[in-house]
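Note to self: user wants both folds in one dump. Writing first protein now.
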Amino acid sequence: MASHHGDDHPIHVPQPSISPPILGLGVMFLAFGVLVGAPFLVIGGVIFVIGIATWLIDDARAYQAAGEPTDGAHH
């Protein structure tokens, strides 16, 4: 269901990323670590940080690829 507001701008769809599943895995290990013990907390924390880092890297690359706006608007 597409809605048009008088402009022909394409819909922004982010590139596929491995970051959300990595974050989910990290959260799963963190939760399991709360129940079982510290080793799973450490593993989950490391995986979670890796997921955040990959997500930030993906976002920075997308921002650079988008370039500067051509209409002079500042965000």
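First done. Writing the second protein, which came from a different request thread.
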Amino acid sequence: MIPFITSAAQKVRVYQIAANMKVAGLENEFIANLVEMASEYEGAYNLMELWGTEENQNERNEIISDLQDEIEDLLTAPKKPTKKPYIKFDDLESIANDVVGFKQHLKTLVDNWGGINKLARESGIPQPSLSRFFNSATMPRRTTLYKIANAMGLSEKEIITDWAA
């Protein structure tokens, strides 16, 4: 993310959009993190502005998911560069199947526990982000798994698998 300095007018616009997000039912912590991030990062500001002008609810939900990803990236970014593991191309399909299987099992637990809407309320993760999480083969972020585990009262052992550690 590229840092930038918001003008007074941009700051006021961020606060207006934040107020509209609250009216739309988004969580306080999400909105607060977003306001802070949008005042320092142009991409977050632009996404927030896009949400503020978008009328289609499905598009707004996608923007919220993108904003949640930006917040997660910022909050979990390492303070210094880290060496990431190398994954062979031939292993990608097997890994994707493992991820999908894990998410299907977790989704069953969530459904039995009370559903995605309840999980969104209890975890502070916006519902569109949770829906995208469960409907993709992307590797889950550790912080997302911890939030889900905490909301559902699950232990680390129940939520974290070898590949996610």
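Dump finished. Worth passing along: Residues 89-164 form a domain with the 434 Repressor (Amino-terminal Domain) fold (CATH 1.10.260.40).
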